[in-house]
Amino acid sequence: MKNNIIILGGGQAGVYAAREIRQNDSKSNIKILGEENLLPYERPPLSKDFLLDKKKEEDLYFYSSDVLKNENIEFENISINKVDFENKKLFAKNDNVYSYDSLLISTGSENKKLTLDNNLKNDIYYLRNLEEAKKIKEIVSNKNKITIIGGGFIGLEIASSLSQLQKKVIVIEIGNQLMGRIIPKQIADLVQNTHIEHGNEIILNKQIEKITKINGHYEILLNDNSLIETDFIIAGIGSTPTVKLFENTNLRLDNGIVTNQFCETSIKDVYAAGDVSNFYHPFYERNMRLESYQHAQNHGICAGKNIAGVKTEYTSIPWMWSDQFNLNLQLTGICDEYDEIIERGNDINNGVIYFFLKNNKIRGACGVGIIGKVGRDIRITSKLTEKDNIVDKQILTDQNLKLNKLIQK
Amino acid sequence: MSEENWIEVGSTDSIEEEDLIRFDHQDKTFCVYKLTDGFYATDGICTHEAVHLEDGLVMDDEIECPMHQGIFNIKSGEALSPPACEDLQTYPVKVDNDKIFIKID
Ligand SMILES: Cc1cc2nc3c(=O)[nH]c(=O)nc-3n(C[C@H](O)[C@H](O)[C@H](O)COP(=O)(O)OP(=O)(O)OC[C@H]3O[C@@H](n4cnc5c(N)ncnc54)[C@H](O)[C@@H]3O)c2cc1C
Ligand code: FES
Predict the structure, then answer these.
(1) A192 SS3 class
(2) H or E stretch covering A33
(3) What is the predicted pLDDT for the residue at B2?
C-alpha cells in the first residue's frame, strides 16, 4: 500500500529520516515541509567556519537536490501553522492542506529571546539559521566592539570567530562559570582562559539591567552598575524546542515532544526526532532532550526506520562537540548523574577529561584539548559507557595507559 | 614502477595491530595502519577540517576522525559518515624485510 509520509521540519533529523525511509520503502510518497527556503543544511559551521569565511553556503547542504530527486523525496518550502491530528492534516498559511498517513515532527529548536522593556527587539541579533548568520557576518564587518550576551556553546563559538576576525569581544554570562553547570568548572575555566588569552573579555555573575541605544551604539547597564559600551549585540541565552504549533493539541509535551525509544509520540502514527524531541533513552532509563549534530542524524535515522516499519530502539550514547579557537571540547553520555568524578590529564595540549561514574561504571565524560586531542578517548568512553562494565580507575586516570585496554577486557 | 617512489616508513613492529602511526614526508603527513590483514596508508589529515587523523580511532577497516567523528574506510579512503563527505586519498603499501614502504607520487 502506498503511504503518504510527511516530515514537518526540513533540518538534519528530517532529511536523514527521509532517506532512511526510502532505503526501507520504495513506494511511499515522502515529502519534507520546511519553512526555510533552503535544502537541509548543517548548522555547526554557522557560528564557526561560515562566520570565518572558511565555508560557503554551498558547503553546508547535507545533500544536493539531485540526491533527493533521485530518491523521490520531495522538498517543499512552506510554513505549517496548524495541525489536526485527528483527521491527519496539516495546514499552511497559504491555505494549502497536507494529508498524511504517518507524520514525523522534526521542527528543531529556537533561540530564547531577551525580554527588554524598551523597544530594542530588532537591535539584538540571534543565531540559529543561515539567514541570521549571513546578516551577522555582514553587519560585524563594519563594527568593532561586539558584546555577546550568554556564555553558552553558541555564544562562545561566535566570540571565538569574531575574535579571529580581529573584533573586540565581550561576553556577559549570568552564571558563575561558562557553558553552564553541566560542564566541569575546571574545563570551563580552561576554555575561559583561552578566550582571555586571545583578548576576549569574559564577565561572569552579572545580569543585564538595561540596554540603551545612543547614536547607533549601545550602553549595557549591569546589575553592579557598571556600564559597557558596544557597537553590536548578539544574544545566545539558550533555546527551547519548537512546539508552539502543538500547544493546544493532545500531543504530549514536556520540554519538547515526549517520545518513547521508538521515536513514537503519544499520538498514533506521529513520530518526533532531533532537537524537538524529549525521548526515552533505554540505557539511562530516563527521558532526555539533546541539541547535537550526531543525535539529530542518528535519531532521524531511527525515526525513519520505525516509520518504515522496521522497529528499532534508539540507544545511541549522546555525543556533542564545540570548537572554540584551537580547542575542541567533547561531551559524551550524561554528566549529571554520578557519585564519583575521575580526572585524566591536566594539560590542555594533551587533553583533559573528566569521567562521571556511578556505581563504578562510566555514565559520561567531558573533555577538552587542542584540536583532536580528546576525541579518541571520548569515543572509547562512549563505547565503555555502552558496555556498562565496572572500570579500572587506574587506567582512567593515567594518561600513559591507553583507554582501549578497557574495551579489550 | 620506479624504485625511488617507495618511501620507507619504519619497521613493521612500530605499529600495533588495529592502530596507526603518523608519517611525515616533505610537506605532507600520512597515516600508516596495521589492520588484521596487512598494512595500509592514507593521507594524514581529515578532509573535513585540517585535523591530524593520527589522534583518531581505528575500528576494523575504519578510521574515525578525533574532531567530529567523520569516518573513512582505510582501504578505499571512502568518506562513510558526516561531517566528512570528501574521500581520503589512499596510497599503496609494501613490506620488505620487515620494513614498511609507501608509494607517494
Ligand atoms: C549556530 C549553531 C551551532 C551549532 N554547533 C553545533 C556543534 O558544534 N556541535 C553539535 O553537536 N551541534 C551543534 N549544533 C546543534 C545542531 O546543529 C542541532 O542539534 C541540529 O541542527 C538539530 O537538527 P533538527 O533536525 O532537530 O533541527 P533543525 O536542524 O533546527 O531543523 C528544524 C527545521 O524545521 C523548520 N521548522 C520549524 N517549524 C516549522 C514549521 N511550522 N513549518 C515548517 N518548517 C518548520 C525550521 O525552520 C528548521 O529548518 C549547533 C546549532 C546551531 C544553531
Ligand atoms: S575535522 Fe575530521 S570530521 Fe571534522
Answers:
(1) helix
(2) strand A29-34
(3) 53
Pick the CATH number of A113-235 from 3.40.50.11260, 3.40.50.720, 2.40.50.100, 3.50.50.60: 3.50.50.60
A278-291 burial by CB neighbour count: b if 16+ within 10 A, else e?
Answer: bbbbebbeebbbbb
Q: Kindly identify the ligand whose nearest atom is closest to the C-alpha of A41.
A: 1
Output the CA–CA distances (angstroms, integers) from residue A84 to A92, A99, A228, A256, A311, in the order listed: 12, 10, 49, 18, 26
Q: How far apart are CA A74 and CA A6, in angstroms?
A: 10
Show residues of chain A in contact with B55, CB under 8 Å: 372-373, 375-376
A99 pLDDT higher than 90: yes
A124-142 pLDDT, tens per residue?
Answer: 999 999 999 999 999 999 9
pLDDT at A406: 82
Report in angstroms the alpha-carbon separations of A285 from A207, A260, A288, A311. Answer: 36, 11, 10, 19
pLDDT score of A409 more than 60: no
Q: Which domain holds residue B35?
A: 3-103
The interface predicted TM-score of the complex, written ipTM, equals 0.89
Q: In this predicted structure, what is the pLDDT of residue B5?
A: 85
A17 lines ligand 1 (CB under 6 A): no
Question: Hunting for cell 581529515 — which residue is that?
Answer: B46
pLDDT, tens only, A6-53: 999 999 999 999 999 999 999 999 999 999 999 999 999 999 999 999
Grouping H, G, I as helix, E, B as strand and the rest as coil, residue A370 is: strand
Which one of B52, B82, B83 has the shortest CB-CB distance to A372?
A: B52
Q: Three cell numbers at A81?
A: 501553522
- Domain range annotation of chain A: 4-109+241-307, 113-235, 326-408
Q: Look up the CATH number of domain A4-109+241-307.
A: 3.50.50.60
Residue of A nearest to B66 (CA): A375
Closest Cα in chain B to A380: B57
Domain count, chain B: 1
Q: Does residue A1 carry a pLDDT above 70?
A: no
Q: Tell the CATH topology of A326-408.
A: Enolase-like; domain 1 (3.30.390)
What percentage of residues in chain A have a pLDDT greater than 90? Answer: 93
